[in-house]
Specification:
It is built from 15 helices and eight strands. The protein is α/β, with parallel strands linked by helices.
Length: about 375
């Protein structure tokens, strides 16, 4: 097991009808900005619950934050905050809204070009306080300090982290997820699944606790996924999926383990250039990464196949192949694309992604061995 440090100050308030607890979490004298996305919170009742909970506080709104939030939109929000003397932000939405809010909170105090926060990975010295009300479980952003922001002008999708960008609190009410579309649910499940795999499917370091935690999340997703589509109103299923998404990327399962993140880095470029949903990019890319990198990942693929899918019989190489096939079958079972051809991308589009990798001189994966040509092999496998 590798050395590690773990810190997570976010308070989680989980369960039915918990949005009303906002009233005790934000000081009465705060001028509160609600950030949100396309406006679904005003149609499903979440907005009304939030407004009721905020009571007599001065409340402002900034909506229309995009999926894969844009740097340009975030900077408009920073300007709005300065004009209205906001001193607390409440993100109400999924990972995109929470990610945008993290960046906004940090950019508010940054004197130079705020893109430096991401592009130069500078140390953030100060950030506005914020909390969140999660409406779409997927990214784990409600309990971590990272965010991913897209710069539309340059087609860049990049991430940053700061200990000052943990939410002070996050409210997780599984009831609010019942209104999600099947596509949103599928994307969220795929996102959670791949978050876990990025931290788990590397090489053995005898880290039994993190491995077992990871496997329990994967098993929960596999067991609960068919239930949520068969009975969308099942509260317990929704609760299990919501908590799985949070645990998938709150830093806990990463403790003491090497991490990969190649699937995400390749997926980010697919989104930046072609506008694909984040979850869709992950379900497409992961099986390709597993195939191309099967030799480096062989021991963990075998462990994954046995512990998660019960693959115990057969020759070593056959078991590895079966584990990869069953991963793709799981994604197919939740009706999310697993092939570039399903989203109308072709070899020319692969060239675009590979060229970006060449320009950035990136070496991806837990061992830094995924070069541009391996990226080409991974994506070509997914045609």
């Amino acid at each position: 097991m590798k050395n590690f440090e773990y810190y997570n100050p976010t308070k989680i308030i989980f369960g039915k009808d918990t949005i009303k607890k906002i009233n005790k979490l934000i000081p009465q004298d705060k001028r509160v900005l609600i950030t949100y996305g396309a406006g679904s919170i005003k149609r499903n009742g979440v907005y009304d619950q939030v407004i009721d909970a905020l009571g007599n506080r001065e409340v402002f709104e900034f909506g229309s934050i995009e999926p894969n939030p844009h740097f340009e939109t975030c900077m408009e929000c920073v300007k709005f905050i300065k004009e209205n003397n906001i001193d607390f932000i409440l993100a109400v939405g999924g990972g995109s809204v929470i990610d945008a809010t993290k960046f906004i909170a940090a950019a508010f105090f940054h004197e130079n070009d705020a893109w430096e926060i991401i592009n130069s990975n500078i140390k953030i010295e100060k950030a506005l306080p914020f909390g969140s009300v999660l409406t779409l479980p997927a990214t784990g952003s409600e309990m971590n300090s990272g965010a991913v922001i897209t710069r539309k002008e340059t087609k860049d999708k990049r991430s940053f982290h700061s200990e000052l960008c943990f939410p002070q609190f996050s409210i997780l009410d599984p009831l609010v997820t019942i209104s999600l579309s099947e596509k949103q649910v599928s994307n969220g499940i795929a996102d959670t699944f791949v978050h876990v795999m990025e931290q788990y499917l590397t090489f053995p370091v005898n880290n039994q606790i993190s491995d077992r935690f990871s496997e329990s999340i994967l098993l929960t997703l596999i067991e609960e996924a068919p239930k949520v589509f068969a009975n969308p109103n099942d509260y317990d299923v929704r609760a299990n999926l919501m908590w799985a998404a949070t645990l998938g990327l709150n830093g806990l399962i990463a403790c003491g383990s090497p991490q990969d993140w190649a699937t995400h880095m390749i997926g980010h470029e697919l989104t930046a250039f072609f506008g694909l949903d984040h979850g869709v990019t992950l379900s497409i890319v992961l099986p390709g990464v597993m195939k191309v990198m099967r030799d480096e990942k062989s021991e963990k693929i075998l462990q994954y196949g046995e512990r998660v899918f019960g693959i115990k019989d057969g020759q070593r190489e056959d078991r590895i192949t079966k584990a990869i096939e069953m991963t793709e079958e799981f994604f197919n079972s939740i009706n999310i694309p697993t092939r570039l051809s399903q989203v109308n991308l072709n070899e020319k589009d692969i060239d675009t992604i590979v060229q970006r990798m060449i320009e950035r001189k990136w070496s991806l994966g837990e061992n830094g061995t995924i070069n541009p040509e391996k990226v080409r092999l991974i994506l070509t496998d997914r045609l």
